[in-house]
Amino acid sequence: ISAGDPDTADNVAVVVPGLGTDATTAPYHADRAATLYEAARTLDDGQTNATLFWIGYDAPDHVGVLREDLAEAGGARLADTIDGLRAGRDGEPAHLTAIGYSYGSTTVGHGAHDEGLAADDIVVVGSPGLGEDTDHARDLGIDPDHVWAGANSNDPVADLGNRGALHLETFGGLGLGDDPVEDDFGANRFQAESATRGGLNPFADHLEYFD
Predict the structure, then answer these.
(1) What contacts 55, CB < 8 A, 6 or more positions away?
(2) Contact at 8 Å (CB) between 147 and 140?
């Protein structure tokens, strides 16, 4: 589902969601894509934009979020999709940004590390890790200056990434890699706190990035 025309836009963003995403949640994620599209339009009215919400992979439910297998398969599908977007254009190529949210960031990470994702910029928000083989932004196959990461400090999903002495990937093969918002990861960190963070629901802050 796209807001704007990805075949003609100067700038194209592909948004990859994560945990619990399926066709029944498509309207919710399409609204997020539309929000990003409107935001991009206001930043530079001299450029045309398109934001594509993509669910071309089997996103995990529940404890499946601790394994990488669905992200590995999804990363290959995502790379094929972006190759198709590139090949389907006439004229100048778009500036293409892959945006991975939650487990979708792990999918983007595998697409970039394993498949050579044809993206100009990679953005991750609320990420539990970009895959156990991605220890630094340069492992994604693009200039680290074009890798961006943001996380709410009260987000329990973002806390799943390795940081400091905690290496979750060593626990029986579970875990999704290093925390991309740590300084040592080498990404550009941007502010992603929620003005209403906290409260009784520990996952509420994980849901507010696009708001």
Answers:
(1) 17, 21, 22, 23, 26, 29
(2) yes
**Confidence category of residue 170, pLDDT binned at 50, 70, 90:** very low
**pLDDT over 80 (residue 173):** no
- 171 strand-pairing partners: 174
Start-to-end C-alpha separation, the chain = 19
Q: Mean pLDDT across the stretch 29-35? A: 93
CB 113 within 8 A of CB 131: yes
pTM beyond cutoff 0.90: yes
The backbone torsions φ and ψ at residue 122, rounded to the nearest 5 degrees and listed phi first, read -125, 130
Contact 168, 131 (CB under 8 A): no
**Cα atoms in the 13 Å half-sphere on the side-chain side of 44:** 8
List C-alpha distances in Å: 77 to 57, 108, 129, 175: 7, 10, 19, 21
Question: What is the C-alpha separation between 67 and 69, in angstroms, rounded?
Answer: 6
DSSP annotation string for 32-75: HHHHHHHHHHHH-TTS-EEEEE---S----GGGGG-SHHHHHHH
Helix, strand, coil: what percent of the chain each, to 5? 35, 20, 45
Residues 6+ apart with CB under 8 A from 34: 3, 51
